[in-house]
Design brief:
By secondary structure, the chain is of the alpha+beta class. It has 18 helices and 32 strands. Strands 17-16-15-18-23-27-26-30 form an 8-stranded mixed β-sheet. Helix 8 (302-314) packs antiparallel against helix 13.
Length: 663
C-alpha cells in the first residue's frame, strides 16, 4: 500500500504532465490522514487558475460527497499575493485518482484534469462574498434535515403518514422561512382570530418549547394560519400556456405537523445559523456588530442543493413510475445536451419570441421533484456566462429564463409541490411546473414547443382490469394514432405518415407495413417516447432513460423504425423516421435498485428531424450519422443492504469526456 507521501508525489507527477509547474504545500485545519497542495502554471507572464492536490489515507473517502469535501479544503488553500482559490482538484485515496470540477454550485467529477492552458475554461462566476460561510451552512442544514426526518419518523411521532409526508412538511417550513426573509413587513401581516399578526412574530422556535401545553398548541395554530395566509402569494404563482394560474400550494394543502416540539426543532434548524463571515473568515459587520446569518445570505444555489440532496437520499417510491434519477445519470444527460447545444445551437439560448420571452425552453413531462431541471440550472448558467453578452443583458435573460424556460408536469400533487419549492430555492419560484392527470394527454404541454427534453418516464403497460379501466386505456391508445392514415386502405388498416405534431404508438404494423389499432399492451415508455418527440421543436433534442427492450427486442422493431426510419439495403441510409439518434449509453442493472427495480436501462439521446421547408407537416429527409455508443458498468456506487456504498468508479465520467472529444 502506498504512503500518503507517495500518493502526493504521484499527483504532482500527473500535474506536471499536464504542464503545471508551480507547487505549494499547505496544511488544512483537519489535516490528519490528508496531504494537500496547490499547483498552477505561468503562461505569458500570468498565473493560471489553481488546482488542489489531495492525498487521502482513508480508502473510502472518494464518494458522492467528495466534491463538497474537496471544495471545503480548497477554501483553505493559501491566497497570498492575490492568488485565487482552486477551481479544480485531483484526489487520490489509494484506490483511484479522480479529477473534480470545483464548481461552487455543483462540484462534481470530471474524467480528466485539463492541461494548464485550458484550465481557464473551468473558471466560474466570481465567488459570492459569503460562499465559504454558505458551505458550512450547507453541511449544517444537510445534517439537520436528516436528523429531523429520523426524529419524526422514529422518536417524536407526528400526524404524518410516512417518510415522504415528512419531506412534504419540511418543504412547507422552508417556504415560510424563505417568505419571511424575502418580503416586506406589510406583506408578512395576516389575521388570526381577529388579530393582526406578522410572520416574524409567530415563526420563531421559542414559543414551542416554553409555556403551557395550551400555549404551545396555540403557537402551532398561529403558524398554521400563517401558512394558509401566504401559500397563494402571487410571487409563487405561475401561468401555463393556456393562461391558467397555478399556486405553489393549493387551497387543500395545510400544515399537517401537530407536535409543538417538531415545529420548534424545524424552525430552529432554519434560523439558528452561524454569524456571517466572508471568504477570509472575517466577520461581516452591520452597524458595528457582526451580522447574524440567515438563509437569505446563503450564496448561489447552495440551499437548493442541500434540499435536492435531502430529497434524493430520503424520498421513497410513491405511486407508478416515481424513481428519483441518480445524480451521475442526470449530470451525464445534462452535459451531453449542453455540449451539443453550445456547439451547434448556441444562438437559440439568447433568442426571444415575438412577445419578448426567451424562446429556449426545456421540459420534463414526468418531472418528479424537478431533478433534471435543477441539475441543468448551474450548467446552463455557466454556459451563458461564457457567451459574449453584456452583464446587464445576461442577467435580464437569465431572470426571464427562470420564469419562462423551465417546464415540467407530474401526476403526483406532492411531487409537484416539492418540485416547485426545489426550483424556488434555485431562484425560480414561478417555474412552470404543473399537476396533470397524465402528461401523455394534457393540453398544458404543446407540440413543437421545446428545444430540450430531459426525462425518466414510467415503464410498463398501463394496468386495466375493470371495464372502465379498459375503456380508459383504449381511449389513450386511440389518441396515439394521429400519424396513421386509415383512409388510405379503406378500413383494412392504415399507413404510417410521420409528422412533426403526430403520434403513432397506439398502433403497430404487420409484416406488410399495414398498421393496425392496438387497444392495450403498449409500454408507457414507448408512449412517452412518442409524446416527447411530438413536444420537441423540429431540431430539438431529447435525452430519455428507456428500458433496453425498446432498443433491442424483436417486438419493438417498429418503434425503432418509427424513430429513425428504415434502412435502405443499397445505400445503408435510414429514411422515413422522426429523429436522428445521437448516442446510446447503457446503464448498470442496479441504477434504480434503491427504488425497487432492476430493469436494465439506457440513456437514449435523439434529435428530432427538421421539418421539410416545402411542407412543414412532413419531415426533411436528414441522414442518420454515426451513433456514439457506450456502456457504463458502474455509477460510482454499488447497492448493498439497501444502501449506496461508494466503492466503484463512476464510468459515466470518462464516457462524457469521450463524447465531448468525439471519440
Amino acid at each position: 500500500m502506498s504512503t500518503l507521501e507517495e500518493r502526493m508525489n504521484e499527483l504532482k507527477a500527473q500535474a506536471k504532465q499536464n504542464k503545471f509547474t508551480k507547487f505549494e504545500d499547505f496544511a488544512p485545519t483537519e489535516s490528519e490522514g490528508i496531504l494537500t497542495s496547490v499547483c498552477w502554471a505561468v503562461i505569458e507572464g500570468a498565473p493560471t487558475p489553481r488546482v488542489l492536490l489531495t492525498a487521502i489515507e482513508d480508502e473510502t473517502w472518494i464518494d458522492d460527497t467528495a466534491g463538497d469535501k474537496l471544495l471545503q479544503l480548497a477554501w483553505q488553500a493559501p491566497t497570498k499575493g492575490g492568488a485565487s482559490e482552486p477551481v479544480a482538484a485531483l484526489a487520490s485515496d489509494g484506490k483511484r485518482v479522480q479529477a473534480y470540477d470545483l464548481d461552487p454550485g455543483s462540484p462534481h467529477e470530471i474524467d480528466r484534469l485539463p492541461e494548464a492552458k485550458l484550465l481557464v475554461d473551468l473558471i466560474r462566476l466570481q465567488r459570492e462574498p459569503t460562499f465559504k460561510w454558505s458551505i458550512k451552512v450547507y453541511g449544517q442544514l444537510q445534517r439537520g434535515f436528516n436528523n429531523f426526518h429520523e426524529r419524526v419518523y422514529s422518536s417524536v411521532r407526528d400526524t404524518v403518514d410516512g417518510k415522504n409526508h415528512i419531506i412534504d412538511e419540511a418543504s412547507k417550513f422552508l417556504f415560510l422561512e424563505q417568505f419571511r426573509l424575502r418580503h416586506s413587513d406589510k406583506e408578512k401581516e395576516f389575521q388570526y382570530e381577529g388579530k393582526k399578526l406578522t410572520l416574524d412574530e409567530v415563526f420563531r422556535p421559542e414559543p414551542f418549547f416554553a409555556g403551557t401545553k395550551a400555549q404551545q398548541e396555540e403557537a402551532v395554530a398561529k403558524v398554521r394560519a400563517a401558512f394558509v395566509a401566504f401559500r397563494g402569494h402571487p410571487d409563487y404563482k405561475t401561468t401555463d400556456d393556456e393562461g391558467n394560474s397555478h399556486d405553489i400550494f393549493s387551497e387543500r394543502v395545510h400544515l399537517d405537523l401537530s407536535v409543538p416540539s417538531n415545529y420548534g426543532t424545524l424552525i430552529k434548524l432554519l434560523q439558528d445559523l452561524p454569524p456571517l463571515t466572508d471568504n477570509q473568515d472575517k466577520p461581516i459587520l452591520v452597524g458595528g456588530k457582526q451580522k447574524e446569518g440567515t438563509l437569505a445570505d446563503v450564496a448561489g444555489d447552495v440551499l437548493g442543493r442541500a434540499f435536492d440532496v435531502f430529497l434524493r437520499h430520503k424520498f421513497e417510491k410513491e405511486g407508478i413510475g416515481i424513481y428519483l434519477t441518480p445524480a451521475p445519470v442526470k449530470r451525464a444527460m445534462v452535459e451531453m445536451a449542453l455540449h451539443d447545444i453550445e456547439r451547434f445551437d448556441h444562438e437559440n439560448l439568447t433568442a426571444r419570441d415575438a412577445d419578448g420571452r426567451p424562446s429556449f425552453r426545456v421540459c420534463d413531462p414526468t418531472g418528479g421533484s424537478a431533478g433534471f431541471l435543477v441539475a441543468l440550472l448551474p450548467a446552463l448558467r455557466r454556459l451563458l456566462d461564457q457567451m459574449n453578452l453584456v452583464d446587464e443583458e445576461r442577467e435580464r435573460l437569465w431572470n426571464d429564463m427562470l420564469e419562462h424556460s423551465f417546464v415540467a408536469a407530474d401526476s403526483s400533487a406532492r411531487m409537484v409541490r416539492l418540485a416547485r419549492l426545489n426550483m424556488a430555492l434555485h431562484g425560480a419560484p414561478r417555474a412552470k411546473i404543473f399537476n396533470t392527470s397524465t402528461s401523455l394527454l394534457t393540453d398544458l404541454l404543446k407540440p413543437n414547443s421545446f428545444d430540450l427534453i430531459l426525462t425518466n418516464p414510467p415503464f410498463g403497460a398501463p394496468k386495466a382490469k375493470t371495464a372502465e379501466e379498459k375503456k380508459s386505456v383504449a381511449e389513450l391508445m386511440a389518441h396515439f394514432r394521429t400519424d396513421i392514415d386509415f383512409d388510405a386502405l379503406k378500413g383494412k388498416g392504415g399507413l404510417l405518415r410521420p409528422s412533426p405534431t403526430g403520434l403513432a404508438m397506439g398502433a403497430n404494423p404487420n409484416n406488410k407495413d399495414v398498421w393496425k389499432e392496438k387497444e392495450s399492451g403498449v409500454d408507457l415508455s414507448v408512449l412517452f417516447l412518442d409524446r416527447c418527440l411530438q413536444l420537441l421543436k423540429p431540431g430539438g433534442r431529447m435525452l430519455m432513460i428507456v428500458p433496453d427492450s425498446i432498443l433491442c427486442n424483436a417486438n419493438t422493431k417498429h418503434v425503432r423504425e418509427y424513430l429513425i426510419g428504415k434502412k435502405d439495403p443499397k445505400t445503408g441510409e435510414f429514411h422515413g423516421g422522426k429523429a436522428i439518434v445521437r448516442s446510446v449509453s447503457s446503464l448498470p442493472a442496479d441504477t434504480f435498485k434503491l427504488s425497487g427495480t432492476g430493469a436494465k436501462t439506457s440513456i437514449l439521446y435523439v434529435q428530432k428531424r427538421k421539418a421539410d421547408k416545402s411542407n412543414p407537416e412532413r419531415f426533411a429527409d436528414e441522414p442518420q450519422t454515426d451513433v456514439f455508443m457506450a456502456v457504463a458498468d458502474t455509477l460510482g456506487y454499488s447497492v448493498k443492504n439497501n444502501a449506496e456504498v461508494f466503492d466503484v468508479p463512476n464510468e459515466l465520467v470518462p464516457i462524457i469526456g469521450a463524447f465531448r472529444r468525439g471519440e
